[in-house]
């Protein structure tokens, strides 16, 4: 008697699954042939507004089955498969090839799908995030037998007063420009020293060091440039987004007054050395023609070793860093001569 009741109970559950599938397919048919208004009215009449969505998913997932094919699968599992079609589509497809479908078979297929797959090899990423969600770039350690990259970078930092980040940013920008064809190597007939800002006529010809990089288009012809057919064949690539280095180089090349250069240097201070070295002798000479006398004096003081560096904050106001001092001091144009004279009195003199 008890066994008979148990069988009857399971048969009732099987019938429930069949009814769910039959009702789902019927709802899908009604929705397809009725207008939106008619279908909405049908749901409201049976207090089913919003309840049909789960059944529409069942109809979509099992549209290739007959309701009796899945009668031995319990209702919750039917809804589970239908509510995640992307996740369980492979299982639903596999069920179509089986002669008999029951709850145990479906559970086994779900369990197999959960088995961990071998993790795909991820490309190494340099991106990290701060606690507030901002993204930053972190370069992995560089291992070399001769420590060449590290020693060169350290030397640049100490001699030029730049951060490691700014130097690496400049290097990446130059390499990208080279890859895009916007950078060519100009060979020089003899090795000459590089000269920073100066007003000396004697130094005007000593501009580009051997092998200095310069941006396309090629510089105007002068005695310093070795003519080459290869340079004429290079087609400059125009990038939609310019790097800070490229923007500063363009300002040096196109500025019509010193105010334009001053504003660009305030924004791209870390890139000034590389931008200046990318200019041709003719371009450097033109920039010097725009340079205020105070900037010329400070440039000569830096060249002579009286100061480490300087920055023009606004017209006639400069931030100057002396030798041995970490922080700079503010010097106005009106007291610049006295300031430089004081440095000479401290035992330093121009070379």
Question: Quick summary of this structure?
Answer:
The protein has 351 residues and is mainly alpha-helical. The protein contains 15 helices and 7 strands.
Give an account of the 3D structure.
With 351 residues, the protein is mainly α. It is built from 15 helices and seven strands. It has helices at residues 2-33, 36-45, 52-61, 75-83, 85-95, 103-113, 148-160, 164-179, 229-233, 244-254, 258-267, 272-277, 281-290, 293-304, 336-345; strands spanning 127-129, 135-137, 183-185, 213-215, 307-314, 317-322, 329-332. The strands form three sheets. The protein has a three-stranded antiparallel β-sheet with strand order 5-6-7. It has a two-stranded antiparallel ribbon with strand order 1-2. α1 packs across α3, α3 crosses α4 and α10 (244-254) packs antiparallel against α11. The longest helix has 32 residues, at 2-33. It is elongated.
């Amino acid at each position: 008697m008890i066994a008979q009741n148990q069988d009857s109970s399971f048969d009732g559950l099987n019938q429930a699954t069949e009814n769910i599938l039959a009702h789902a397919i019927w709802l899908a048919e009604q929705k397809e042939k009725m207008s939106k208004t008619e279908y909405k009215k049908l749901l409201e009449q049976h207090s089913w507004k919003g309840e049909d969505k789960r059944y529409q998913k069942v109809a979509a997932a099992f549209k290739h089955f007959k309701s009796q094919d899945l009668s031995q699968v319990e209702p919750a599992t039917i809804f589970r498969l239908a509510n995640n079609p992307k996740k369980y589509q492979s299982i639903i497809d596999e069920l179509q090839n089986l002669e008999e479908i029951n709850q145990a078979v479906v559970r086994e297929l779900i369990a197999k799908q959960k088995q961990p797959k071998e993790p795909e090899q991820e490309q190494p990423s340099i991106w990290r995030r701060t606690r507030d969600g901002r993204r930053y770039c972190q370069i992995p350690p560089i291992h070399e037998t001769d420590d060449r990259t590290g020693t060169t970078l350290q030397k640049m930092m100490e001699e030029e007063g730049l951060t490691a980040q700014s130097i690496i940013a400049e290097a990446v920008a130059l390499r990208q420009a080279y890859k895009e064809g916007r950078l060519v190597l100009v060979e020089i007939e003899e090795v000459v020293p590089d000269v920073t800002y100066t007003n000396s006529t004697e130094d005007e010809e000593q501009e580009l060091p051997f092998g200095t990089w310069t941006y396309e288009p090629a510089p105007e012809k002068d005695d310093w440039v070795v003519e080459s057919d290869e340079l004429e064949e290079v087609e400059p690539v125009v990038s939609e987004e310019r790097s800070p280095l490229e923007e500063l180089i363009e300002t040096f090349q196109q500025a019509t007054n010193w105010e334009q250069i001053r504003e660009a240097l305030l924004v791209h201070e870390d890139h000034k050395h590389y931008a200046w070295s990318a200019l041709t002798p003719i371009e450097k000479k033109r920039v010097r023609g725009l340079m205020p006398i105070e900037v010329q004096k400070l440039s000569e003081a830096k060249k002579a070793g009286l100061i480490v560096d300087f920055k023009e904050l606004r017209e006639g106001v400069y931030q100057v860093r002396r030798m041995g001092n970490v922080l700079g001091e503010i010097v106005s144009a009106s007291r610049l001569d006295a300031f430089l004279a004081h440095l000479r009195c401290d035992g330093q003199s121009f070379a």
